[in-house]
Write a structure and sequence with these properties.
Length: about 210
Amino acid sequence: TKTGTETYKLQGTGSPMSDTMITKLAAYGSLKDSMKDIEDQIKDMSRGPIVGVLREKNPYDVAAQKLNKLVESVVPGLARTVFNEVGVLTDADVRRYKAMVPNVKTEQELADGLLEMLKKKIASGYESTLNAAEDAKVDVSGFRARQAKENQATDTTAAHSGLLDEIKALREKVKTTGLVDKDRPALIQSIAAKTKEYLQKTGQSPKF
């Protein structure tokens, strides 16, 4: 069984990756997961400049408190991994980086923009680190394999999401038709076919 840096060597070529580089790549991976967690948590959450202040100050608002703790937890990794901060973070540093992460006071449009910016920076930093390692003749084949697998999973998720959007659109069209409308049977058949396709691809019924 391979252990340590050998875990990431699939091709058996190039020098082993240093523990420092593995730690940095792992930090990028952790930040990527945290951004997904934040994105999931703020989805459908009632928030904004006014309601957010009230929710943030309410110790019994579990969702708001959980989101706030998550935002606080990503700040050190964001500062040091993505923006290359060194040493002890000052209070001003913490406030600056915390402001980059969507929270319960952030409106949807701004939240989407901030998340997109952070995800791009994290992905770019991860890729740059791998490229630099490859240029230095370090074997990064294990990380590349994992990256390819994750990209494939992302593409699959996007495809499933697109199919779900098609079903939703067809359902909305049906609502605008009458019982004797000549287009209604074809729309219902299309919904049934798309629903069956979604079930076959995902193993579960579509949820709306």
